[in-house]
Amino acid sequence: MTTEKKEYKKFWDEALETLPRPELDKLQTRLLKEHLTFAYHHSVYYKEAFDQAGVSPEDFKELSDLRKFPFINKQVEREQQQKKPLLGNMLAVSEEEVVFVSASSGSTGVPTLSPFTKQDFDDFQSVESRLFWAMGMRPTDRYVHALNFSLFVGGPDVIGAQNLGALCIWAGSIPSDRLLFILKEFQPTVIWTTPSYAWYLGDTAKKQGIDPAKDLAINKIIVAGESGGSIPATRDAIEKLWDATVYDFFGLSDIFGACAGACDEHNGLHLAEDNILVELINPETKEPVPDGEQGELVFTTLKKSARPMIRFRTGDIGHIDRRPCACGRTHTRIYIDGRLDDMLIVSGVNVFPSDIEYVVRNIPQLSGEYQITAITENFSTKFIVEVEQAINNIESKEVLADIVSSQIKTRVGVKPKKVVVHDYDTLPRATHKAKRLIDNRKTSFTYTI
């Protein structure tokens, strides 16, 4: 008896995902008009903020009119949450309508809660199913969700995979030995974690005599939380280790889990533009930046009623492409280059940890691990880069340090103050998000809205 392999459709929602740009603009205009009106009449904060800025929903006629409305950021979120705990003055529904909350890590201040109504949550998971499908997940897959479930906005994303029809294993953030046991026993085909942990887990498996490429069934790895998934050298290293394809996802706790994800073209991350509108601005002047140029990503929700997010400054630096993708999808692709709070300005040059990672992961004599320390010297910012030699390295540490320093200069335009080469397995390994930048400067970069 033979079983024919089922042929699945290419798109989760073809009509929506391939909507021509003019039609997509019309959809966003209609949704945003309704969303601004809802926020103004139901949120204490937005009523006050719009009035203070001298704008109202009636001033919005076309997408470019959004520039008339005020920005918000994490600081605004915290202030409004503290004014009226638990959920704050930005809330636009009664608390009894809220069915789920996630929270930021609080690593840069007080944790901020992100509330969802049932409809918000259903919309959220519908987007997750769409993104999972775009990266190739199908009902035939076994999916292990290796993200934190404790208030983390990415935790519930597993429901989107279930709704798609995949067999889902709710692993969560468990010890590596336990997760490797699951990977061996259940033989899942897809896993989601961070780039750092994907590398760490594969390296740990090898130390235990498990070859991820031969002994495990993982053929697709979703990564998020760090920029590594969109850095070719990092992606290639993880893919070689696991013999699997890496797909980068992007999300933020302030809106919902994964908001954008890679397709098989691996050329940017498709943003769910029926739920989120993206702008690109100069972080200093706050003026629009042309598509293709580097700027700060600003997001506006189009449907999220529990807490609308109007012109939210993400702090993420990148660029966007509104042209249709070769995969056939028309929704804007975003490219994340780094974060404002991780950016160093050295001799007038913007340096991101992702720039350093690009160099380090392209030098075969290195393990791929690295750490950056920012310092102040003569009232200027300098940085020190620490790396590890690979197990089979035959170059001297001095030669390696020169190679790293020279290639960083070529990549970003400035040299580090010093490069320190350690023995293999010296630098700390990350089991969640890697902390790559240690800021020991007397002052750090900040920005205001």
Low confidence ranges: 443-448
Q: Provide the CATH architecture of the largest domain.
A: 3-Layer(aba) Sandwich
Oligomer: single chain
Order of strands, widest sheet: 4-3-5-6-7-8-9-13-12-11-10
How far is the first residue's CA from the last residue's CA? 66 Å
What does the model show?
The chain has helices spanning 14-17, 21-42, 44-53, 74-83, 118-134, 157-164, 176-186, 195-207, 212-215, 232-242, 353-360, 397-412, and strands spanning 98-103, 113-117, 142-145, 167-169, 190-193, 220-223, 245-252, 256-261, 269-271, 276-281, 295-301, 312-321, 333-339, 344-346, 349-351, 366-377, 380-389, 418-422, 437-439. By secondary structure, the protein is α/β, with parallel strands linked by helices. The chain has two domains: 1-341, Rossmann fold, CATH 3.40.50.12780; 344-439, 2-Layer Sandwich (GMP Synthetase, Chain A, domain 3), CATH 3.30.300.30. The strands form four sheets. The protein has an eleven-stranded mixed beta sheet. Helix 2 (21-42) crosses helix 3 and helix 5 (118-134) crosses helix 6 (157-164). The longest helix has 22 residues, at 21-42.
